[in-house]
Amino acid sequence: MKWVKFSMDFAGSDGKQHALLDNLNKDLSQKSVLLGDGLKPSAADIVVFATVQPFVSCVSNRELQKFPHVLRWMDYIQNIVDFGTTLQKINVAKSVFDPPSHPKKGDKGDTESSSKKAVSGQKIVYKSNGSADSKKPAGETKAPEKKETPAAKDNKTSGDKKKDKSAGKTAEKASEKAPEKAADKDSECNISILNIQVGLIRKAWKHPSADSLLVEEIDLGDGNVRQVVSGLAKYCSPEDLTNRHVVLITNVKPGKLRDVMSAGLVLCASTEDHTAVEPLIPPEGAKIGERISFAGYFSHVGLMESLKMF
């Protein structure tokens, strides 16, 4: 329940997002994912990412540098989980790797000459030891060297063959486990866990206290009307959005954005340089309230209910 509560607090805590991000940054300082000590993302990672992403995308790069572990985690999740066009990727500035310089030819020559001197010194020591052995009394003799019998050689060869066979079996088992791990990852990171529906914007107006935000009243059919706050004021006017069909995520926890309640996320597409942003157009013939599904993915309805185990 920890990460469900975090998502609820983050969406509903106006002005406290930086403090919550700081806590998340500390929690991720020794981990790659939110649950467990491995590298496999869970449903908790997907939910928290979907909750934090809209806020992080509007924060300046200078502010984001205060949360390096959050940025590392978000970059990992968005590259390993296939969100498609549902969520916009966060641009993370990565440091350039500067490999160590190789030794110069002159240094290599000096190294070789010093090693040759060491070898020559060792030869002198061996000679002096040899002369010392020659001066030993006649009564002292060296122990005879043991020779391997043919039977011992055969046993050694059969032992080596057994080792080679066991190594081959281990490699086969490892290759069999690799596809299973990939299948587990695909089943765990399923974008259809998000409840995406078609809606119709009945009204749109400017946010009373934020120039970059618009407020939309979106009809989902059967009397279900949602109020959603979106960061579209720089790209669309309220008139452009009125009576327009859109696609939105509806199973997110309602929360306030600048003191105005929001109960959904309108999905948008943008150019590569983010100079133009527009809401996604639903599939042709889609009805208001109809859920958007993806070929090859099992449909999950009710995101928060499916996460009660956490």
From TrEMBL:
Residues 104-115, 133-185 have a biased composition (Basic and acidic residues). Residues 1-101 form the GST C-terminal domain. One of its GO terms (cellular component) is protein-containing complex. One of its GO terms (molecular function) is tRNA binding. InterPro entries: Arc1-like_N, Glutathione-S-Trfase_C-like, Glutathione-S-Trfase_C_sf, NA-bd_OB-fold, tRNA-bd_dom, Tyrosine-tRNA_ligase_regulator. Residues 94-185 are annotated as: Disordered. Pfam families: Arc1p_N_like (PF21972), tRNA_bind (PF01588). Keywords: RNA-binding, tRNA-binding. Residues 190-293 form the TRNA-binding domain. It comes from the Eukaryota. PANTHER family: AMINOACYL TRNA SYNTHASE COMPLEX-INTERACTING MULTIFUNCTIONAL PROTEIN 1, TRNA-AMINOACYLATION COFACTOR ARC1 FAMILY MEMBER. This is tRNA-binding domain-containing protein. It comes from Urochloa decumbens.
